[in-house]
Amino acid sequence: MGSIREELQVFVRRFGLLNASCCDECCGEQVSMVQSHILFEIRRMGQPSMQQVAEELGMDVTTFSRQAKGLEGKNLITRQVSPDDRRVNLLGLTDGGSEVLKKIDRYMAATLERVFSHMSGFERDTVVRSLELLNEAVAKAGDDASQQEGKIACCN
């Protein structure tokens, strides 16, 4: 077995996490990886503010705003002023955004099923639990590294 870093690097490449945009076989839209994460978080959070989603994704607001503007231009998200605070923009999914996200969900579910089909139930459960543990440890390490704004990698 290689080093932990090597295993993570290989995983990221093989799983396609470095792809610049989502391909036609996935959703038929030119949606970047970052934009798919934004769509996912908007759905998960309900009707979040731009600041909430940017913080959840670990992005600065300026970069996030450009990405959100691109999604808005593709008619995948809506942006509206909060009735409680006119300085806050709330985000929502359009019907088109919901449909793109459903396509991405189906594609990812099929991809994960293909991957896990090569494992026993025990191995699958072990991987899922290991990912949970890894995510918890990364979150704690990020909290410990407050000078890096909660990030542990050097190239965020």
Automatic annotation (TrEMBL):
Keywords linked to the UniProt accession: DNA-binding, Transcription, Transcription regulation
Domain HTH marR-type span(s) in chain numbering: 1-136
Single GO molecular function: DNA-binding transcription factor activity
Entries under Pfam families matching the protein: MarR (PF01047)
Coiled coil: none
InterPro entries recorded: HTH_MarR-typ (IPR000835), WH-like_DNA-bd_sf (IPR036388), WH_DNA-bd_sf (IPR036390)
Name of the molecule in the record: MarR family transcriptional regulator
Organism: Oryzomonas rubra
